[in-house]
Amino acid sequence: MSFPSRPKVVVSSCLEFDSCRYDGQRVSSPAVLHLMEHVEFIPVCPELEMGLGVPRDPIRIVSVRGGLCLIQPATSKDFTGEMKAFVDSFLDSLGEVDGFILKNRSPSCGIGDVKIFSRADAELPTGLGDGFFGGEVMKRFGHLVVEAEDRLNDIEVRERFLAKLFALHRSRLSDYNSRLR
Fold first, then answer.
1. Global pTM?
2. Rounded to the nearest 5°, which phi and psi values hold at 54?
């Protein structure tokens, strides 16, 4: 087995890789475009992977009896179980990575900026939190470099992200090489 020569980064597929957003769009991300020749990307769209198509009716996070559910208001369908099953399966089988770039405000991928509603049909959110995938990434991989794509437009945030990403990769490479000796 050989060690990857470039850092491995899990990225939301809608960021330059696939037209998989609920509205069939792809999101432009200058940071992701710039990194394409420098990192090995692992694109993922949790919403597609759990069975939703493109285009699709939007989903949202709803607080129900003290817990959070992933509801599609147009159909009243609860996708919480499907999402949790995908997240666990994907993250359990992921292997070693150096970082994540996730779509901001996404009910699946967002970290810290996802609207949480009191009811599926509520017009205004009651707070902000993590998406189902993004939240689990933070729990399991928060020691790595995890960033929302829009924050990488800030030069200081981007520089910290890149410095930590390449430092983590060098550390993994060093550990790998020492095991070969």
1. 0.93
2. -135, 130
